[in-house]
Amino acid sequence: MSELNNGPGRRPGLHLGPEVVDAFSKAAREFKAILSVKDREEFESSRRELIRGELNIMQTQQQETKSLVNLKRLQMFLDGMTALQEILGEWGLREVNSIMACIWGPMRFLFKTTRLDDKAFDNILDVYQRLGIQIPPLTEYKDLFKAFPDSITCLVHIYKDILEFHAIAYKLFSRRQSFWQKLHRATWKDLNSTFDHLAATLKLHFDSIQDHGRPFRDRHAFRTDSGFDSGSAELTYEDKRKFDEYRINYRQKWKDFRQSEANRKAAQKSKIIKWIAASSETELHSKFRGIREICPENGTWLWRKHDEVSNWMREDPPAESNLWIHGRRGLGKTVLSSLVVDELGKLATKGTDVPRQTQICYFYCQKDDNELETYLGILRGILHQLVSAAELPDPENESLGNESGNHNLAILPLCEDKITSTGGSTLNNQDVAEGLIEVFFEASTRQYVVIDGLDECKASTEIQQTVTFFTKQVTKCEDLCQGQLRVLFMSQTSKEIGKLMSKHNIQTNAGEIELDPNDNMEDIRRYVRTLLIRDGTKFSLSEWDKQYIEDNISGRSEGLFLYAHLAMDYLLKQISKDDLLAKAKLGKLPNGLKEMYCKLLEAVKQRLLDLEEDGSYWNSAKQLLSWLICAHRTLKWHEIQAILSFDLKTEIIDFNLKMIRVEVNEFLGSLVQVLPGDNIRLIHNSAKEYLAETEDIDAKSVQCDLAIRCLRYLSLRCFVASDYNEAERQDHIIQGYFSFQDYAMAQWYKHINTVIEESRPVLTGGQQATENSPALTAALTFAIQKFVTAHDDLKPAPASTADLPQSKIDSFNDLPDLYHPLLRLWNHICQHQKDTSDKRNKVGIARLENALKAHRDAIEKDFKPSRPTLNADTIEHYYGPNLFKCSRTLCKFFHHGFDNKKDRDSHQNRHDRPYPCPLEERCGFAPVGFSSNKDRQRHVRNYHPQLSDAPSAFLHMRRRVEAAKFQCTICHKSFTRNVNLKGHERSHFGERPYACSRCGKAFARVNDCRRHERIHTRNGQ
């Protein structure tokens, strides 16, 4: 290589300006900065000759194993880079070897790394071919570079564009082999736009050199006797102006590309988040953080007293990477979990004890919320945060590869690929979620996960799956780097959970921490004192009074923070200082949480009875609380308003007159809370248990009441009348008639199920019958009879109950007027639940299904959330902000919905045809996806072979095709026979109308079906 610097080939008077040398050197330095020390040294010694030798050895090996992959694709790239090195060497660039090492070194590295992975190696060769085609024969334009030194800028740009590709490829393939193999296929597909851009910018350089260098071009440049002097051509002013345009165009192309990539990545991230469809944990976390704001210093004893927690948070490596913290119900564990999350965030911001690039994920389990009480819900929540943490590329950042600070962005293509390959509108596959989370964990240098409320999971299997998966991930990451992944579980003390933790080596003195209620005492005192100072000024309390209240509440609380919170809410609602001090006495304060809930309920009752003597306010509040306790999913505020506005006697829904015009917290005080999405829940899961045991609330009767309301509602004229017209529908929409339809359509059968299972004792003749039982039984009988009569397409009653899954239906046979229609209804429910997943995702009653669709279509077409209804009310008050709903009853978007039609339709299409083409909107052959993965794979093989997993080693000769006159309207492919065209068009959508008469297997083409049937004939079937 020294000959290139100082040999006889160098021409006198030729030299590179310092700015050009600096440009090459700077580009090389930036590239080397992303390399590991080992690779930097290895690359520095790389030369073109080494590449040639190694490729020759590789080709010989491939010939021996008959696995040739067309290495000829490298020729143009190698020629181009050889010419670049020759020019730089002839011009006396002293650092030419070091500069060109950034070309030859990465090539050697990429070939060595991917040589055992056919697809990866093939992809590398393919990109080199795409780039090489756009590199001009540089040695033919030496006279141009001599006559017009500014044109050397093209060489700098070519060099930088090649380094851009090498930087991107290096960042992928320099990871552990097992890791990059997980990412490679999806990442390479995602990088296609980058490769297209690089090819386009190289073509821009090619065109500029070719246009300006035509008068200077020496087509014999590679001859040994060729020189630089090929004529006396000169550049005109117009040539110089065009070259200035080229430089501006190049900068603009890169600017536009970086912006489009930032936009594309933002859209990709948004698409993945919508697919994950997780409940918002950040809003829950903000709520718990708000609770802590009263006393920010509370809870810090957790890591000051327990060295295991401090060690887990700060030390590297920690003594234990798994922690299980547990204690009594009401201790404030969830608030402690949120405190740990925020403290870790502060430590990461400081960057001393915890690395700055640390990622912190959390999940708060919530009982009776299907999104927050299952293993899949936990996986979704964690994955949602990992995807959300991906830092989008900065369009102003011109550094090589333009990679964000964390590694999460690099995993988004894999997530998007899973959307395409797994089917479904949302993430419903645990295996897929686990696989993606595992990749994120493996990529992170430090990852914390805090999972609160394990005991609130729906079933023990959910807890078992959660603990098993996350502890397994910790073990895997420990093999890579101890302390890389750290997981904290928080729950109530439980023998079952304790046994599970022991199986995973989390036990006393090895990651298990039991909280002592006494540790909370100082925090409770501080909390009480702070509230008395902040909110107790109206009582004019003396220091002795404050100390008295503080002592009594902290003493009675037994370290339960929930008790202190409820007690202060109870006391501060008193109307006089005398009442407050009287109720704060030790003998007067409720004993334990159960009594406290009773006191709070009694306080709500008394306050509402004082407002209205006839008790109507209290009756409404009692109904509302009862529904919150017994509903089969979390109710939204507008749904609660709909129940209250439905008059069973007149069968009229009147939001305008009957909706509650105050906030729910003003109505029910601290017993309820408003969650994200306008969902209403009781303040704590313990409230449901204790309130259901009070004399004011009878859960069994409430289940009957909800069943009655659902059935009576679904028997209204707007759901059953054949002559129901559009004018009526429009009028009913404005009145709020359809606010309750999402809940009633999806949940009515569950309430019937609960009535059969639990409510017989409170009906006439039951063991817990009261004076209200006859009226309740009559109302339930009437509702069921009316419903069965209105929907005569229900399945008929069975001859016997032997085949029904529940025997408790027979306990109603002493109530014949109720039993017979209930039996028919129950049989319909059982048959519906035994059906396929698609059928179970429908309402199951054709008349209701049609009515639901008609009502929703009208709302979507003619109304917006901001449209006024009556007086100052809007559609949003009656129906919420999301008017575009999914049609599948078991999907959360059936009631949650979307705020626009495009998102809903995209979601719905994923249900109906869950396997889209990998190119989705860009594919003109299959715009709506496929019903099976097999059909999608066949489509990819036929129309997008570059996306298939098989390497594209050599191009095959195409056979001659005769002229055809039958053209496909979708992809414009032509056929010689119309029957072949029809079969082809059906294949676009995976349709198979021809079924085998023997086994039922379906085919797209009749000849394929006949050929298959002959197999049965040959086999004697």
From TrEMBL:
Q: InterPro entries, from UniProt?
A: GPIID_WHD (IPR054471), NPHP3-like_N (IPR056884), P-loop_NTPase (IPR027417), Znf_C2H2_sf (IPR036236), Znf_C2H2_type (IPR013087)
Keyword field:
Metal-binding, Repeat, Zinc, Zinc-finger
Q: What are the C2H2-type domain coordinates in residue numbering? A: 966-993, 994-1021
Q: Which domain of life is it from?
A: Eukaryota
Q: Does the keyword Zinc-finger apply?
A: yes
Pfam families attached to this UniProt entry: NPHP3_N, WHD_GPIID
GO terms for MF: zinc ion binding
- Write out the coiled-coil annotation as residue ranges: none
What name does UniProt use for this protein? C2H2-type domain-containing protein
Native organism is: Colletotrichum karsti
